[in-house]
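Structure (tokenized):
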């Protein structure tokens, strides 16, 4: 299976929420920072990278956004199974002596070595190498967030602060945030945004969540460590807050209520093509991703995934989770 390659960025959906809407998903990457900073929201044009998504200050609900040529390369497989087993991670190399400095985080000593290992790659590696190592992130977002290394490294050199679920470093222009759970691997890829902004997620993240899920099913995860036990992609049973139709009656997400649902739907999956994933906003808090999937008999059907953003105990987003799948 081909791994993800650099492509154009994704436009945000902040305006879809409206000024008085609830504070759940839809935190958008922001643009307009100075030359040493990051250009994120609506920045679809990256030198040498094909543009697919059209930037919009007010993305329409139900607008379909094509993933082709933006955040991934073709992804396919020949056989697969739903069950995945944990693969021991290889031993990490020591932090390079010349790795960029990272500000200490009171109470979280593991943050510094994990970020210094990544910062060494940011300083000396290529975007393609970072996309390979930062496989939990949509490749197009890696391109956007990491395109100005010196600005990111300047923010990392500042003293860090921690909450129950994340660690943050901030300069006058940038905020660099990583989930505390990611620090356990000893190598952590942060999210980068404008100063003062929380970690932000967009439609490319939603499509990448589905891509990772399907890649597991065909037996070719983007990384051997990408298993449901260690990197959950399915919405949890609690809290029972699933309400994609806006009925006002929240329930447990169907796959959490019936763990066999996805197994029944995908028991015979053989292949899928990552470039064919498309997404559409169902509402301000829910997004759908259509994925043509081929079974072992060679029959292709489109599966529609519905996703929402998880919230941490602090009320911040922790990325997308899959809450339902239907077949057309």
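Design, position by position:
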């Amino acid at each position: 299976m081909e791994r993800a390659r650099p492509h154009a960025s994704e436009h945000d959906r902040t305006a879809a929420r409206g000024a008085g809407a609830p504070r759940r998903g839809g935190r958008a990457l922001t643009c307009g920072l100075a030359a040493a900073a990051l250009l994120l929201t609506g920045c679809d044009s990256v030198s040498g990278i094909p543009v697919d998504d059209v930037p919009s200050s007010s993305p329409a609900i139900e607008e379909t956004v094509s993933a082709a040529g933006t955040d991934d390369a073709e992804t396919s497989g020949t056989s697969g199974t739903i069950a995945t087993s944990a693969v021991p991670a290889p031993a990490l190399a020591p932090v390079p002596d010349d790795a960029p400095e990272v500000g200490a985080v009171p109470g979280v000593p593991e943050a510094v070595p994990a970020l210094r290992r990544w910062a060494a790659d940011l300083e000396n590696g290529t975007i393609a190498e970072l996309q390979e190592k930062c496989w939990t992130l949509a490749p197009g977002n890696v391109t956007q967030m990491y395109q100005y290394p010196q600005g990111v490294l300047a923010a990392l050199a500042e003293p860090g602060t921690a909450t129950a679920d994340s660690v943050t470093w901030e300069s006058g222009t940038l905020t660099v945030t990583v989930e505390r759970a990611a620090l356990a691997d000893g190598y952590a890829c942060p999210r980068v945004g404008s100063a003062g902004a929380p970690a932000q997620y967009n439609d490319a993240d939603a499509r990448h969540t589905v891509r990772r899920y399907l890649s597991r099913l065909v037996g070719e995860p983007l990384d051997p460590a990408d298993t449901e036990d260690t990197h959950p992609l399915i919405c949890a049973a609690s809290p029972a807050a699933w309400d994609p139709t806006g009925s006002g009656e929240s329930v447990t997400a169907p796959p959490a209520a019936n763990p066999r649902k996805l197994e029944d739907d995908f028991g015979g999956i053989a292949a899928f093509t990552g470039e064919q994933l498309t997404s559409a906003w169902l509402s301000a808090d829910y997004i759908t991703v259509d994925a043509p999937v081929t079974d072992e008999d060679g029959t292709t059907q489109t599966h529609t995934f519905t996703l929402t953003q998880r919230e941490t105990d602090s009320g911040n987003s922790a990325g997308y989770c899959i809450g339902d799948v239907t077949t057309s």
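Reviewer-requested clarification: Residues 203-217 form the longest helix (15 residues). The chain has two domains: 16-58+89-194, 64-85+202-327.
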